[in-house]
Amino acid sequence: MKKRSIAVLFAGVMALGLCACGGNTQNTPSETESVEEDSAVMELSSAVVDAFEWGPAVDKIVVKPQGEVSSTEVADYGISTTGSVREITEIYKSDASGEKADDGEYLTFEMKVQNYVGTPFKLDTSQLAMGMNQWVKSFDVTLSVAEGKTLTIGDEEYSGVLDEEDMISDLFIPGTEVFVKDAYEGDEITLQRGAYEPDALKEDKVKNPLVIWLHGGSEGGEDIDIALLGNEVTALTREDIQSYFTSENGSDGAYVLAVQCPTYWMQSEEGAAVDGTKDSMYREVLTEAIEDYVKNHEDVDTSRIYVGGCSNGGYMTMNLMAHDTKNFFAAAYPVCEAYGNNLMSDEDIKQLAGRNIWFVQSINDKTVDPYTFGMVTYQRLLQAGAKNCWYSMFESVLGVDKEDASYNGHWSWIRLFNNQVTGAQNPEKIAASSDTESYGFEPSDEGGGSEAPQGYTNFFEWLNAQTNQ
Predict the structure, then answer these.
(1) What is the pLDDT of residue 53?
(2) Candidates 3.90.870.10, 3.60.21.10, 3.40.50.1820, 3.50.50.60; CATH matching 174-465
């Protein structure tokens, strides 16, 4: 039987502080005895996982008190998760899912989050060269009365630990709950899929756009939640992004389809990464998985199917477009794309030059060198006659989920999902440039450039307007 810890009665208790391992030391929990499972007076119910710029984090703990609680002041409690003492920002009555409810039977503890604190992911570097995100094997949570404080629950006073539990089986992920999850089984390969299908679109009786996302190199596997959370794909369901997509006589919004491969998109059938003589082992089955989804959703507007992805997913975006001779995709949005310019034949460039494409990257990307990947490819596209082809190049990757947040330069998908891609580089200048160091690019943290592609004010507004007609 699992063990829980319960706060002992206040009389005669000496609280011993826990070690804070890298976390905020505002309210230090204290130690107590272990007792049987059903004894907790503040029973840990669920740990809420939300998506952030850097990935997932537990930012709420939902608790079921076994009696009336004398205080909901943050200073009276302490929480630690996986050894890090967390800063509690708010406590309120809620339902079992952590939503505020004045008559709720639960208490929800909201906590401050930051990169790598409270994450339920770990990077398993034993799998493949780049490592793959996996769920941690355990997620230990301790809820305590703050050191030096007492709390009345029911008719008794308590101090010390109120409950502690490994909550890895009690994670609740509201952001991915809105996705319909299934798997596409090809002849030899199975791909996981997650689809956001708003009721308003299913009921508006008109054709609606479809936005496809292909994950990065660390988000492969057999759990679509890893792909949805690792790059904050859930941002595509937010109202501020969904509102840019419109359909004549229909509701605002777009369907969103995320597809996950078992390993990484750049893997060839020989097991190594793709090169000039090898193609991805996943391109054909991915094409089948997307076509299958469209076939089974008759209200998808086949003239407005958009494909994009980051890094490895950016590679696959370019790969799909280079082979899309039937003009299936209306537009593409490769982010920090890893399709090497050396893989791009003149025939590929000719095929892509006639398509609608918007690239996004940061010039300080140390993982996918923009100088040898996207920048030179983009100049070739422009010189081949590309008209509706754009590139947003940022100086750095700055975020909004934490004050003064600055991230790895490779993580330019953060700029996209924060709706910060509002401008593009000057294509005429780049096409005419003979400078093989800058290729005419002028990186800018003000939207990625000064041009307004086709007159649109941001990337999503532009994407909504693209068709293959």
Answers:
(1) 95
(2) 3.40.50.1820
